[in-house]
Amino acid sequence: MSISASNVPSLSSVTKYIDEDEHEKTKMALIFDKYNHRLATLPKERGWITENLYMYQGFWHQSKRRMSFETVMALQDTFNACPTDIYLATLPKSGTTWLKAIVFAIVNRNRYKNDSFPTHPLLISNPHNCLPFVETEIFRNTPTYVNDPHSPRLFATHIPYTSLPRSILDSGCRLVYLCRNPKDVLVSMFHFANKLRDKSRGPMRFEEAFELFSKGAMPIGPYWDHVKSYHNVSLKHPTKILFLKYDDMKVDTVNHVKRLSTFLGYPFTEAENDDGAVQEIVRMCSFENLREVNKHGDLREGIPNDAFFREGTVGDWTNHLTSEMSEILDQITNEKFHGLDILF
Ligand code: PPS
């Protein structure tokens, strides 16, 4: 597979991205057919959105979806990374959409700086359309974005570090990992799953979500193993892997945007700092702004744009977890993260 997309979408390419459904369905079917025979060999667990999850290389994946073990296998077999690529890695519901928006805005700020409202892609489209997942990019027919050899390609992924395609690991490219308090990830995933779940299965109860999450069975979980997989390498290679927390980013977004821009090689100039360029990006990527832009329409296959914008706060778990549930998760987190500097 060759992925010749760069990170800079034009408005027409964003529209084309949405129009490629038919080709994608064919390509998805081919990839699923190629790898689906492995399903019978994989451990199985109850799913949140799909009926089942399957364990591949120590993590739970869906099957026959854009985010699936088949997709991970196909990427491992075919994906070619470039040393200039930038990857944003997250566990679902950890702030992926927000991070995509911020990084897209930082890297492309000069391209759009003279555009007046509302022509910036983030003011008309979902951040998921502006910065794709490698897991969804694999199904595309033609390049999504204008190929600019002087710009890095920007991709996001939910794939655990230990399952990343070899070429990403070998390429030495930069990667940002964003994690979030496990209790807020659980609550966010619970609401998301109930929005997307097949209606015939009925709504998921919070107790069931808690039970599955606690034993690690969430899409691309276990939560703790996913976070640790990236934390370990970020300690070894701090100039290549930036490890961030959603919770800290909410407290001081301005400094996180500055930190990200420096890490990515796009530091703000003094003039930009004086002009309030950082604050402008923070405002454009704020929960309130992105929720407003995305209050209508679908991302794809019936996933409404607004499903990615619920509360956008730290600590909503206090409205869902009993004190006993909270203690159980604290205990698991303390054990799993023992000796690591990962506190929420
Ligand atoms: S996904 O499906 O993996 O892409 O979801 P993800 O984006 O990782 O997580 C969704 C949660 O992030 C919140 N969100 C935001 N928080 C702060 N700022 C911005 N701009 C923002 N955009 C989305 C979103 O509301 C989900 O969290 P909850 O707790 O469910 O509100």
UniProtKB/TrEMBL annotation:
Membership in a protein family: Belongs to the sulfotransferase 1 family.
Provenance organism: Cynara cardunculus var. scolymus
UniProt key word Transferase: yes
GO MF, any single term: sulfotransferase activity
Matching Pfam families: Sulfotransfer_1
EC number(s) per entry: 2.8.2.-
Protein name in UniProt: Sulfotransferase
Assigned keywords, A-Z: Transferase
Coiled coil: none
Residue ranges annotated for the Sulfotransferase domain, each copy included: 83-340
InterPro entries, sorted: P-loop_NTPase, Sulfotransferase_dom
Keyword Transferase part of the UniProt annotation: yes
